Amino acid sequence: MSSKTFQFKVLATDGAARRGEITMPRGTVRTPAFMPVGTGGTVKAMYMDQVRDLGSDIILGNTYHLMLRPGAERVARLGGLHDFARWPGPILTDSGGFQVMSLAQLRKLDENGVTFRSHIDGRSYEMSPERSIEIQGLLDSDIQMQLDECVALPAQEREMERAMELSLRWAERGKAAFGDQPGKAMFGIVQGGDNARLRERSAQALKAMELKGYSIGGLAVGEPQNIMLDMLEVVCPILPAEKPRYLMGVGTPDDILKSVARGIDMFDCVMPTRAGRHGLAFTRHGKINLRNARHAEDPRPLDEESNCPAARDYSRAYLHHLVKSGEFLGAMLLTWNNLAYYQSLMQGCRDAIEAEKFVDFSGVTQERWARGDLPTL
């Protein structure tokens, strides 16, 4: 199902947890949703057909990386990111701000935006709120993020407040640059670090802008999980119930379960793909490190009940061999397994919310992770 306009509907609730749908011209996103990260127009170690078949309704593209290589104007000339990457469904692009702060060299930030040197070749670039929206428009993404300043935690309160207020001004400018695009959306980003007062101020100001969706940024950047959850409990009740809520860059399966319980609808994170490339599998039995020697002669698959061939059809011994040998296939199979598990977890969340059994589902899932799946050999 698709819509000519951007629409969000809450279909069921269970406590603060929400089951919903975002409909856009390019398709429907079932929420709670996990968005695989396609940094440079590719979900690393995966074919796009695989990503779709696992149940992903939407992927994320990275404005900073695509701007540097191959260039947003080039992508536009080649038909936009959907055609370029062979992904027909919705795409969300981030603003590029986080990567500017974390990767770029010799960056200079002021009221207008950020001037920085590429981490690839040292060339100088300027990124303003308007330019970020322009680049995302050239990529032709369906959901676009405002440019914001993300402060690493811990930080001084005055520094968090300065960055939060600057991000609010940039949100206004981003909204003006985005204009009226019926089938697309620009999301604002709630900032404020680990300070409840600042988070509340940011959420209230963004709510007053009447945007189509709202993101919560600057969390899962090194602070304890309980701090992240405390900030969600401050922010989520403020944000409009009829608009989607996106927690940026999160996270572990446990982070996702606890954030869904507090009213979050959308997630993205490099964790399942990055972990797969480094020998770590996520399963319903918890995490399995295939680098460990104890898997060398274990004939069992990662999960005999999984619908994913990578989890069901290959032995742990073989996966251990691939990882230890540095074979590309090891990264491919474990990434496939990890994204399959994440999408299975999201489907479980959606089903449990509809059945009003989310607390039970969460408890059973966490108990299984804690119990693990040690070999009996």
Give an account of the 3D structure.
The chain is of the alpha/beta class and 377 residues long. It folds into two domains: 7-269, TIM Barrel (Alpha-Beta Barrel), CATH 3.20.20.105; 276-371, no CATH class. It has 15 helices and 16 strands. It has helices spanning 48-53, 63-68, 72-77, 81-85, 97-102, 129-139, 157-178, 196-208, 225-235, 253-260, 271-277, 309-312, 316-325, 328-354, 358-371, and strands at residues 7-14, 17-24, 27-31, 33-38, 59-61, 91-93, 105-109, 114-117, 124-127, 143-145, 185-190, 213-216, 245-247, 266-269, 280-283, 286-289. It has an eight-stranded parallel beta barrel with strand order 4-5-6-10-11-12-13-14, surrounded by five helices. Helix 13 crosses helix 14. The protein is globular, with a radius of gyration of 20 Å. The mean pLDDT is 95.
Secondary structure: elements and pairs:
Elements: E1 7-14, E2 17-24, E3 27-31, E4 33-38, H1 48-53, E5 59-61, H2 63-68, H3 72-77, H4 81-85, E6 91-93, H5 97-102, E7 105-109, E8 114-117, E9 124-127, H6 129-139, E10 143-145, H7 157-178, E11 185-190, H8 196-208, E12 213-216, H9 225-235, E13 245-247, H10 253-260, E14 266-269, H11 271-277, E15 280-283, E16 286-289, H12 309-312, H13 316-325, H14 328-354, H15 358-371
Keywords: Glycosyltransferase, Queuosine biosynthesis, Transferase, tRNA processing
Family: Belongs to the queuine tRNA-ribosyltransferase family.
GO molecular function: tRNA-guanosine(34) queuine transglycosylase activity
